[in-house]
Task: structure prediction
Amino acid sequence: MRGASRASLAEATDRLTGMLAGGADAGQVGDELFSVAGLLDSQSGLRRVLSDPSRPAAAKAGLAGTLLSGKVAAATLEVTTGLVSGRWSAPGDLADAAEQLAVLAIVAGADDDGTLDELEDELFRFGRIVDAEPDLRVTLSSPYIAADRKQQLIDTLLAGKVTPPTLRLVSRAAIHPRGRSVGRSLEEYARLAARRRALLIAEVHVAAELSVDQRGRLTAALSAAYGHDVHLNVVLDPEVIGGMSVRISDELIDGSMATRLAALRRKLAA
Result:
């Protein structure tokens, strides 16, 4: 998001933070904001009206209040009316903002419960599973499979094995993909989770599992290099013969033997 939309999202995020600090149920608010995002996605006319910069903010807030009053918690209603009162560069930004706030609410609940580390790791691991299993990816992504069947499958795979916030977010990614793949949605949710603690995410590909000490030293080295706390997502990759490759955002740090051998082959073939 840019310009007015970014400023409006920042204001809405501050409002959400205040609601949660005041004791609002983070899980409930997150679920309800996801429903708001779904409503905006499905009702293009409503989305245009609520994001129209020419309409008075009070009128837009009043319309949202009429639609949602008695159907969502007071905290969700306040966040939503504040959200539609903002200025948006494009109608789609309003629905995107509602989704981001939903994720941030659930992430905040995980942070309060002391399970934020687990949430980040579980989102990453399940995303890798989905990417590696074509049948699962097709099933979760298919628009022809009913939401309750997808939920049953997710519950079978994950219920009791992951934290409740992870189950919430995975379910949302599968049942309401908003035009993205499940894996892409989970990546976005993990990014928002990391942002709560101002973390960079480093995806590390290695041939063998890292020890606790190795993880600690690598985390410290990357944090020092980037001037920022770093969270590691470690991938066991058979294509990494030795060493490791690290990707942070769009930057690749590749020290694997496979890459060095490939570079040598290119030189010999030249």
Observations:
- The beta strands are 200-206, 230-236, 244-248, 251-254.
- The mean pLDDT is 88.
- The first helix runs from residue 3 to 21.
